[in-house]
Backbone:
């Protein structure tokens, strides 16, 4: 039997860049970027996204030829105000001050600077000089959940509040179109870029964790976190640093790999605490894409209502990498009635090929 972590989620906040209409992105930039290739248009139309968010709108600013250094400088200037807004909102939701925070965890795979966002945000938000900091970098879309586990461990061990911020600016990493893509003869690598350019979005999302014994009746206890990495499929999802920003590799076989592992991982997670899949009251599934959510629903036997928060976030915001599962949790909290003592499972997936899942229990 796994031992429950004695930390509770007591506050949440997010910050989003300006909205970008999905159809307008195709018409205003990517149609020409891919020479109006039929396959690219089909990918765009099947993404199940209406609106995305971006610090860079490619219809007015093309960064596809920028070097990585310029993209990292832009990351810092755009990330700071978004990070401040998300963390400030989460602290206000929890009723805490920045000076109360014992650990600031920053999760990102889309930008790196030193001194990092952890140092600069702690300084600008007025956190104490002895605040501890943790950076979770380059883990990809699932990184919020190992970040949550590590942050909850700190809270349980030290008895102090902590904040975790997931901040991803994928719009900085638009890649130049290859000659094969523009000639209408896309390679498998070209197709992967088309899919990633049709899905990814920007967001900052933060949560506050406090010792369960000191927390009020609202929020969720962090009960457990589990992971599964299938190293035999490590080439299925990649995120490479290149001279022209970061480049996504995304195999179409990813949904079938998740189909093999999703149910065993969830059964391991909930079974360790005397639960079955059917006894879970709420689901926060990372919407890596529409087919990802569909596959998870199929193997877990979940209906449309259970997956609605994931589909809604995908439609309204897009795939914001590590920040997405926190946005789904926020959406679920306002749309799904989880009773006191009821349980929620959060799941996310990424390079490795890795699946992480967290079990949360409603307080009250």
Residues:
């Amino acid at each position: 039997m796994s031992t429950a972590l004695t930390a509770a989620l007591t506050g949440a906040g997010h910050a989003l860049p300006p909205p970008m209409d999905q159809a307008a992105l195709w018409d205003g930039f990517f149609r020409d970027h891919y020479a109006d290739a039929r396959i690219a248009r089909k990918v765009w139309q099947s993404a199940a996204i209406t609106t995305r968010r971006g610090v860079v709108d490619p219809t007015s600013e093309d960064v596809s030829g920028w070097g990585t250094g310029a993209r990292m400088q832009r990351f810092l200037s755009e990330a700071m105000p978004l990070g401040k807004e998300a963390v400030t909102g989460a602290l206000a939701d929890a009723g805490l001050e920045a000076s109360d925070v014992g650990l600031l965890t920053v999760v990102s795979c889309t930008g790196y600077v030193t001194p990092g966002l952890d140092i600069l945000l702690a300084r600008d938000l007025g956190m104490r000089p002895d605040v501890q900091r943790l950076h979770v970098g380059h883990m990809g879309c699932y990184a919020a959940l190992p970040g949550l586990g590590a942050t909850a461990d700190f809270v349980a061990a030290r008895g102090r509040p902590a904040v975790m911020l997931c901040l991803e600016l994928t719009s900085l990493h638009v890649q130049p179109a290859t000659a094969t893509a523009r000639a209408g003869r896309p390679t498998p690598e070209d197709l992967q870029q088309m899919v990633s350019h049709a899905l990814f979005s920007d967001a900052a999302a933060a949560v506050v964790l406090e010792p369960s014994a000191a927390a009020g009746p609202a929020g969720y206890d962090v009960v457990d976190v589990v992971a599964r990495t299938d190293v035999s499929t490590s080439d299925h999802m990649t995120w490479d640093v290149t001279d022209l920003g970061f480049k996504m590799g995304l195999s179409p076989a990813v949904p079938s790999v998740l189909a093999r592992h999703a149910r065993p991982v969830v059964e391991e997670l909930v079974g360790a605490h005397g639960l079955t899949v059917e006894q879970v009251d709420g689901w926060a599934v990372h919407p890596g894409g529409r087919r990802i959510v569909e596959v998870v629903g199929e193997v877990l036997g979940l209906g449309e209502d259970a997956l609605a928060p994931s589909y809604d976030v995908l439609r309204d915001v897009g795939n914001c990498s590590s920040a997405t599962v926190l946005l789904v949790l926020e959406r679920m909290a306002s749309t799904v009635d989880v009773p006191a003592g009821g349980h929620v499972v959060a799941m996310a997936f990424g390079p490795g090929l890795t699946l992480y899942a967290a079990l949360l229990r409603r307080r009250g």
